[in-house]
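New here. Invent one.

***
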Amino acid sequence: MPGEQVLKKRRKARVIQVGSVKIGGNEPIVVQSMANTDTRDIEATVRQIHELQEAGCEIVRVAVLDEEAVEAIPAIKKRIQIPLIADIHFHYQLALKAIQNGADGIRINPGNIAPDKIAEIVRLSKERQTVIRIGVNAGSLQKDLIDEYDGVTAEAMYASALRNIEIFEDLGFELIKLSLKSSDVPMMIEAYRLIAAKTDYPLHLGVTEAGTLVDAAIKSALGIGTLLYEGIGDTIRVSVTGNPVLEIPVAYSILRALKIRKIGPEIISCPTCGRCQINLPDLVETIEKALAGRKEYIKVALMGCVVNGPGEAADADIGIAGGRGFGMMFKKGIAYKKVEEKDFVPMLLEEIKSMDNEK
């Protein structure tokens, strides 16, 4: 259609495989998260990973702080169904042990591990075909780059990534994915743009230390969303302070909003105004909870006005436009049946189930 905005062509990254999940190329953008449990507490960690799996997480990362944590990896892996990444800082021995213990990938920041120890990690990773994520972080850049670029900048992050890539390539290792994360959204965007233009390694997008849910959602939608719109990015993580399960719906909302992946429930609802004569906030909250964890895509419109509701949500699969004590149920913008307000929830869920069965 004239004037219609479309996503820019996706940057073609080389394809790598992390456990059962392919990343890059034309593969779907992968949604990741990180457990915030103590990895040494195997029960708590497995329980949280199961919650993340149920919410739609496709790759999970765990912090490996010490020997006890790295020894927990085999037991955790046996009880989960998604690839497991070991997150390691400073201690190269833990990286080696994580690979030996079956981690599907490791995340390291080469800036805080000695070059000769990086070579040991690379040798074992090459032998086991274990993916390494080079994680450049604005908070831990090498001092000489900070001095050279007059501070922590997108250019300094880019230079750090190139330096680290060169180390790995000189060692004959290319099973790499990259991240260049910052809590500064414009800096993060520019750093990823620079590296995307220079290499074809898969890119993991994220705004680090993004804050609690609202701030994290906004910063991630701007940072991750801008890059995805430009065709940059192969995996994403929305970082939220607190329960990581909250990250997953935000990640999928970003992908749905850009029409990159149609997965799970998309609920559209009006902000309400003086014409609204139903309890729309409660209706939306109830339907969201009822459809939480759903994998199949469906667009549900919940509107507070019988005048504009159906027209404003004409492309929804199903919806309700409310009036005083009743509502009009509609499919694809076409009025379907009149429903009393007390029956909104059961009738909607029944119709959705019926639609699923028809598929």
About this structure: The mean pLDDT is 91. The two ends are 29 Å apart (CA to CA). The longest strand covers residues 131-137.
